[in-house]
Specification:
Elements lengths: L1 E3 L5 E4 L2 E2 L5 H12 L4 E3 H9 L7 H19 L8 H4 E4 L2 E4 L6 E2 H17 L3 H12 L14 H27 L3 H14 L4 H13 L3 H19 L5 H11 L8 H9 L1
Parallel strand pairs: 1-7
Antiparallel strand pairs: 1-2, 2-3, 4-6, 5-6
Helix pairs in contact: 1-3, 5-6, 5-7, 6-7, 7-9, 8-9, 9-10, 9-11, 10-11, 11-12
InterPro entries: AfsR-DnrI-RedD_regulator (IPR051677), BTAD (IPR005158), OmpR/PhoB-type_DNA-bd (IPR001867), Sig_transdc_resp-reg_C-effctor (IPR016032), TPR-like_helical_dom_sf (IPR011990), WH-like_DNA-bd_sf (IPR036388)
Pfam family, one: Trans_reg_C
Family: Belongs to the AfsR/DnrI/RedD regulatory family.
Length: about 270
Amino acid sequence: MEIDVLGPLGARVNGLSIVPTAGKPRQILALLAIRAGRVVSVETLIEEVWGDAVPRSAAPTLQTYILQLRKKITDALPVDSELTAKDILATSYGGYQLAPVEPIRCDLVEFQRLTAHGTRAMAEHAPHVASEKLREGLALWRGNALVDVPLGEVLRMEVIGMQEARTRALELRIEADLQLGRHAELIGELRMLVAQQPLHENLCAQLMTALYRAGHPWRALEVFQTLRQSLVDELGVEPSPRLQRLHRAILANDDRLDRFTLAQRLLSA
């Protein structure tokens, strides 16, 4: 079984799609797919689909949606398959479980594996490995997670967590590339990211560091001033102490900023 959630929803059995066209069954399949191999309770599925406006018919309607999904699985299975739709979408412990026995390939699981590998490599001072693994993980994304699925509260929280993991992996990959001396080639990417998220201090700090190391300290100072003005205008706050420390180091033309270790300490202290 193949499951894709890092972009449009995809779920295939024997190479054939089992994704329904209707919104509510897509929600159910998406939640089961994200938690493949784990039981999702009936209560959680009902909360996802109907929120606070649960109709009296919610339980039987949910069962109907499950039957529809099982029908699509049955149609996708080979004629001589030893598995049934109930094996792949099982009823278990007051809920339902996708792929309890069927081996699965899931882009989310692979992303988590690769980012964990990259994170360990950074901790072990192996930026080449970290950059490679994090790039591989980020390349699995095909847009926003579950971009074609209506999101209830449960899926919305899942997607927020997935997007946060994506952002963290991106920041860590950029840190690895900074360690590898790729500051000049990072500037364009970082300018685009900062334009998209102008109040994101980590990205601004990375852009400041890249610009300084590329020989453009005045441009790095401009990034700080733009961020400061945005924070004051929109939130009424100053940049964090860690970013102000980086700003002061650039003003002082501290040549230790050419080494990653000092920039890292300034931003983590």
